[in-house]
Structure formats: structure tokens, C-alpha cells
Amino acid sequence: MRVALFVTCVNDMLYPDTGRAVVTLLERLGVEVDFPAAQSCCGQPQFNTGYRHETEPLVRRYAAAFDGYDHVVTPSGSCAAMVRDNYPRIAARAAAEGRADDGLAEAAARAVPKTYELTEFLVDVLGVTDVGAYFPHTVTYHPSCHGLRMLGLGERPRRLLEAVKGLELRELEGAQECCGFGGTFAVKNPDVSAAMGADKVRHAVDTGAQVLCGADNSCLMHLDGILSRQGAPLRAVHLAEILASTEEHPYRPGEAR
Q: What is the C-alpha to C-alpha distance for residues 8 and 14, in angstroms, rounded to an integer?
């Protein structure tokens, strides 16, 4: 099994520890992970902002960067959803415009089936829910919109969290409501975005948990910023960092991410 890590732009620039956690976790489970240096943005910001044609070269680049790998694993539901849900749409639109021979359909066909969000890969491909993690803290889980609605992750993240030794999982009121980030939505509609984030944060603080967990650092960045400004006793931590934590090498909330 040849597995590649698609780290994503947000993690590469702002949260490299999440990418390292994915590698640590997968290697602990016996998976050899590569990091193709040719990878770049999946094209989600361009696509969501309406620059559809400008997204097309990134579809081809993604497919080429991960050629030869059996699986591509990413710690981002939104980026996985971009590949799986929108790459076929981009290829179909190109065909409808009479550009069926431009390589987009073939690139999408290569990329889509082997791209997995991390929890999907763990549960569906490796067939594990207990990854040997240890995280003795109270945690509440926020399911991001792309993972919840586009990928249909369902209970996979919760099953993984429930198997972590020492972890107490607390229910989050309004868990399925959007946190308000939405990528460029937060830039174009900052007041609405901030209000939605404040609602999510209020519910998270009400759980009394120490950690707000999620599978997308873009959402966690939005929420952690609100938590920090409020001085709340709660910090956002990516699911991969929790699953990578062990008794020998624990992750401690409040440390620099």
C-alpha cells in the first residue's frame, strides 16, 4: 500500500503539527507515508469564489502529484470534499463546453477514488477505530460542514474519539450547525461569520470541556480565534493530534500547536 499525505494549504502554512500528527499516527499503525513535494492547493478557494477555469490547472496538478499512490490521505474534510465532489463537476463542465479532450476528466478519474479524509481512511480502509491513543481530557466534537454533508463522515470521528483511552467525550449542542467560517464566506460576510462562530463557541464552552475537537483546521482556526479573544478556558485541537497522542508522547492542551 502506497499512501501519500495531502497536507493542504492551511495546515502547511499555519498548522504543520497536524500534518506531522497524521504521519505519526499512520506510521504507528504500520502505514508507510510519503509526502509528494509537487502538491499544492486543491483549488477550493478559486472554485468557491467563482474562478472555475482558474481551478482547472490545479485539478491536473493534484492528479499528477499523487500519481502512483494507492491512497491519498488528508486531515481536511473540506479539501477532501473539493476533490471528491467538485473535481467531477469541473470535468463535466469542461466537457459541456466542448473541452472533453483537455485531460480534466482523466485527471479527475485518477484523483477522486483514492482521496480520503483521515477518519475515512482509518475506519474504512484500515478498519480500525482504536488507534492506541491516550488523551486524558474532556473533549467536545464539532463536525465541519464539508465532512458532515459532502463526505458523509457520519459517526467515524466520534467512534475514533470514543476509543481513545482517558478521553471523555461531551455532547455539543447544535453540533451540526455551521461554525461560520466557510472559507471565503468569512471574508465576504465577516459579521455573519463572527456571529455564527460566537454561537458555536458558546455551546462549546457550555459543555465544560477542555478541548474543542474538529477534523478541519480552517474551522478550528475560526473558533480558536474567538475562544482566545474571549479568554475562554477551552482550546481547539485537530482530531489527528488527539489520535496521535500516546501515554509515552502525550499532547497537552494549551501548548503551541
A: 10
